[in-house]
Amino acid sequence: MATEQELQSLFDTLDGDKDGKVSINELFLSPGLSAVISSETGISSPQELLSRYASDEDGSITFEELKQAVKNASNLT
Ligand SMILES: [Ca+2]
Which pTM was predicted? Predict the structure, then answer.
């Protein structure tokens, strides 16, 4: 389980280039944090997370999309 604040801080840490989106490369660059995302979303691979939730053509996920994924897994407190 995670609060919105915890998720936001996780998201900001993952977003290395600070463009407001987390790309697949950024997920791969932080395997430890990706593992936390996996456990909070119940989706094991970054590829699957992005294909299910990223609306952008470039395959990056926004904070709102990540939040939705965690909410769908009933892990947002
Ligand atoms: Ca980014």
Answer: 0.93
